[in-house]
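Contributing new records

If you add data, match the layout below exactly. Sequence lines come first and carry their own label; structure lines follow with theirs. Keep one chain per record. Anything else will be rejected by the validation script.
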Amino acid sequence: MRQTSELVFATFLAPAIRPAYQFVASRVGDALRQPVRLVTGESLDQLRCGEVDFAFLCGLPYVKLRREPRPPVSLVAAPVLEGDRYDGRPIYFSDVIVPVDSSVTAFDDLRGRSWACNGFDSHSGALVVLHRLLEMGEDGRFFGHVQVSGSHQQSIRLVAEGEIDGSAIDSQVLAVELRDQPELIERIRVIDSLGPSTNMPLVAAAACEGLRQEVREVVAGLGRDEADREGLAPGLFSAFVEIDDPAYDDIRGMLDSVKAAGLRF
């Protein structure tokens, strides 16, 4: 455990969801009667060295961190998203978008087209796409050009402005962007959905293992009253649930299959 009374949470995920993560971190601080601070994650080394205590993390980096000789993180909880497609489960999708006036109507139509990827260490933006290509008997050369945009929001912008032919977007991020920028509804179309995949976890750094169960109980209790629902609403969360490591075997399986086939963009 860190030698300080302050708990540091980090988010390595989309900035649009930050208000909901701030709410979760604040609720933990209130329950444990400790000051908390939410920072933007810059490197996974922040978890390895104990610079942060808890982190909201993509499932793919989580799986990779757990494979290190001394895993620097352990699971706390995962969010359940609002909407019938999530069926009350801690899952999400990767929605494939194209410009609204594009002739593309199916994933296969993107052959030879330009593609935006938020980052190569993203499950929703990269791994699940490569896995779909593997299932199709294709590889990263399926696309004519792949541009790393740096974020899902930037990928959405590139597609909406017709600068890129397609992209795979975290379904939570896409729903938040469409809610906050409704003009996007007239500029993009969803032509496919990849997944579902186990949702992005809240993890505890090894140095904070002693607090993990307490934090888990606090976070898994969110969403039961109106104040909680209002705090979680910016991220379209309905609740968080306790979750264990085998839940991420779906992502492990995709990673192992893609690596064995040597697929990359």
